[in-house]
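Hi R.,

As promised on Friday, here is the backbone we talked about, encoded as structure tokens. Could you run it through your design pipeline when you get a chance and send me back a sequence?
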């Protein structure tokens, strides 16, 4: 099998598991190629001719699939929630429940979440190494002074290390007693935006992510989803390529 794609990459692209989880499946002896158990991670397969099975179930090359979802407030970005809260997967048809999510948003936050069967690309988008740009609009209560804005750009010390925004712009339309800002970040730590403002003595009243990498939320209504265009998928696939070439 000198030609083709690596087995773990094929499984990831087919939506079976992320690349790392696919490697674990192979090492555990749960994958067969043409009826033979394969445990060598360097194995390559030809998706057009080879029969690949995981736990006895045939795996075929899947169509590349990406969805943009507008997550509303009071939903969690996970498949199952031990607290019984509603999940983002309840907002898409059952045939999409096996997709990976890209860009977790917390329970109170809103905005763009991506869903895909391309585990490798999803991992690149989320990995801090590639600095994928995220843009948020936030309504903040508190003293958002020029000094505070400079601190956001320069860096604020958090419990898991310093964090900073790439850009911050004041916007119009905030509710009374609040300030509306547009923030650009290139990492996605847990509740990072809320923690940044808390460290400055402010409270985020509303947070919505308006873009993730090259994909924009646009006019997509809360709770609705759409399939990405070919151009959007091409742009997502290019993320990080220049760093690994």
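Update: got your reply. Pasting your designed sequence below so it's all in one thread:
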């Amino acid at each position: 099998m000198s030609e083709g794609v690596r087995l773990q990459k094929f499984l990831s692209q087919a939506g079976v598991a992320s690349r790392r989880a696919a490697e674990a499946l192979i090492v555990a002896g749960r994958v067969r190629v043409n009826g033979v158990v394969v445990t060598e991670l360097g194995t390559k397969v030809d998706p057009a001719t080879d029969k690949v099975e995981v736990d006895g179930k045939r795996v075929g090359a899947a169509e590349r699939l990406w969805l943009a979802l507008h997550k509303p407030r009071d939903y969690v970005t996970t498949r199952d929630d031990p607290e019984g809260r509603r999940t983002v997967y309840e907002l898409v048809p059952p045939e999409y429940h096996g997709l990976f999510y890209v860009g977790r948003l917390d329970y109170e936050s809103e905005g763009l979440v991506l869903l895909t069967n391309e585990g490798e690309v999803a991992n690149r988008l989320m990995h801090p190494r590639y600095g994928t740009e995220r843009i948020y609009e936030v309504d903040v209560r508190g003293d958002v002074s020029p000094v505070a804005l400079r601190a956001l750009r320069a860096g604020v010390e958090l419990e898991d290390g310093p964090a900073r925004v790439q850009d911050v712009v004041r916007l119009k339309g905030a509710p009374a007693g609040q300030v509306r800002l547009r923030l650009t970040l290139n990492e996605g730590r847990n509740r990072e935006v809320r923690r940044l403002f808390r460290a400055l003595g402010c409270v985020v009243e509303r947070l919505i992510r308006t873009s993730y990498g090259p994909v924009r939320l646009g006019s997509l209504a809360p709770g609705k989803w759409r399939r990405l265009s070919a151009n959007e998928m091409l742009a997502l696939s290019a993320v990080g390529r220049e760093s690994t070439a």
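One thing I noticed while checking it: The chain has a mean pLDDT of 91.

Thanks again,
M.
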